[in-house]
Amino acid sequence: MTSKPHYEILDGLRGVAALLVVLFHIFEVHSHGDHSKQIINHGYLAVDFFFMLSGFVISYAYDDRWERMTLKDFFKRRIIRLHPMIIIGMIIGAVLFYFQDSAGLGWGGIHEVPVWKMLVVMVIGFTLIPVGKGLDIRGWEEMHPLNGPAWSLFYEYIANIVYALFLRRVTKVILALLVVIAAGITIHYTLTNANGNLIGGWSLEPHQLRIGFTRLAFPFLAGMILAQTAKLKFTRNAFLTASLLLVLILSVPHIGGIDNLWINGLYECFCLMIIFPLIVWLGAGGKVKGKRASRLCKFLGDISYPIYITHFPIIYIYMAWVTNNNLTLEQSWHVGILCAIIAIIVAYLSMRFYDLPVREWLRKRFLSKSDGFL
Fold this sequence. Notes:
12 helices; single chain; mainly alpha
């Protein structure tokens, strides 16, 4: 089977967004729960950008394969692509768990959590099945207490299942209608919720589940319809332009103030529904020129998923250290930078010596040579 052209720039943009997530979480440590004052204020929207990229790439890669591909084949491909790093992310979270004790964060009981209970949470985490309050060993009601960002992979899997069972079959007209409906739901929630933003989705609590599904629906569907209908146009310096645009919109301070939260919500809708599709369109239509640029995009793409799914256990430690010692950003910025560097190194080593070899073994073991691989 002939391979389709690979979107190198989209890989690079995914890496840029993943690095912004790391920086967002480092600065979040110093926000004391007030996201309106946080540096890289809208970094959490990188998750919504990931969902849009996922919808685009899955539709592009698989829509025309279904005559020669079964549901089983599709799910094998997606599990092989995503699941090895979920497992290593949970292992890293377990190894670092007892270094994260902090009464100031409500984690003062971490040292009292039995090892067997922590290991049970880890094993359940391997399956990506969320845990309830009975296994909330951190105290933040996270569906994955050892590695918080795994919540978005839970929704990613749901999107993959819905795509395979339903969305791949719908016409473009119906898909466009679903995009409009999802946009309406997103706009309504974003403009009316008590926080004026799209933050949330990491808990099994009903309101958090609503946020999670709201954040998933529009970008994933919009990514699909972009892949199916957009007429791509070559743009010079597409990677640089799209990267700068992504950094800019995710770094914009909170807009509107406490009395006009809806303005910030309107800005987030603008990012989600106008700017993100533009960035994906620029990235898909652009070309990488030169070996250095190509290597940069490949490196960023290669570490994007590993750094996203492994960095937060490191941030938990930084968060506990800062809180326990009542440190400001000015006092701890150098350690924050060190955490970012360590996160990149851990991601690279995980990718190079674990993820790639394991996926290659799984591909040879469970996929035929004619299957291709994503």
